[in-house]
Design a protein that fits this description.
The protein has helices spanning about 5-15, 30-65, 70-100, 100-130, 135-160, 165-190, 195-220, 230-249. The protein is mostly helical.
Length: about 250
């Protein structure tokens, strides 16, 4: 089979694994007050770990290819701040439109954040698969595993905001399908023009967006519900899952 087609399939597989994140919305035995804070704390642990363990170090390494250490650290920090400011602006704009439904706003902001994260991820998976099929398969497996909790962070707030499984599945699909969009962009336009600096900037911005969502959206929202030690532990479960996925990748 043509290596390009295989690379597209591999990228689509890793991206659409986010759809496994819709499973919690089909579990009836958990009430909204129990499942929402668990999912929010779990997702915040996931996003913070992705940011600090993966996105920021990878961004720094890419900047470091053509710069000394201090400028590379500075560029990483600047673009992380850009991501935080961007997500803050987007969140306020969305709040103006749908301020009456904070769960729906949270879900939409998360979708935007994950698209910023998944598009460069799709570019990386596609190019890696074309270069080395075994490397692409290994990378896509690790990405698929960490896309599942990302899907949860979209599906759960959208579902409880709208009570519509179709909308929850649709938005979860959109966030995952953006990886395939990244692959298409890499194949059609970007591959000859992508530099280490540009990719480092995109990854650092994505880290900033996820840090903002975790600290200013997910964690504060979870504290609106009754909490106990068992629920708070889900934050550390999210961290553990992503550390495990990081080593698998």
């Amino acid at each position: 089979m043509n290596s390009i087609i295989v690379s597209f399939f591999i990228t689509m597989f890793s991206g659409l694994s986010t759809l496994f994140g819709v499973v919690p919305i089909f579990i009836k035995k958990f009430s909204e007050e129990k499942i929402l804070p668990c999912c929010f704390l779990f997702a915040s642990g996931v996003m913070l770990t992705i940011s600090f363990l993966s996105l920021m170090p990878e961004g720094f390494i890419l900047f470091r290819e053509n710069n000394f250490v201090f400028p590379s650290v500075l560029f990483t920090a600047i673009f992380v701040v850009v991501g935080i400011l961007f997500s803050s602006k987007i969140s306020k704009r969305i709040e103006e439109k749908i301020s009456s439904n904070y769960l729906y706003r949270l879900g939409i902001v998360t979708v935007i954040a994950l698209m910023f994260h998944n598009i460069p991820e799709g570019i990386t998976t596609f190019l890696s698969s074309r270069h080395d099929l075994s490397l692409g398969l290994t990378l896509s497996l690790g990405i698929a595993l960490h896309n599942i909790p990302e899907g949860i962070s979209v599906a759960v707030p959208i579902y409880y905001a709208t009570k519509s499984k179709k909308k929850a599945i649709f938005f979860t699909f959109i966030s995952g399908f953006s990886e395939f969009i990244g692959a298409v962009l890499a194949y059609l336009f970007l591959a000859p023009f992508i530099t280490n600096f540009i990719l480092g900037a995109i990854l650092s911005i994505a880290a900033g967006i996820m840090i903002y969502i975790s600290i200013y959206e997910l964690i504060p929202t979870s504290f609106k519900y009754p909490l106990n030690i068992r629920i708070l532990l889900y934050f550390f479960v999210g961290i553990f899952v992503m550390v495990l996925c990081h080593f698998l990748i």
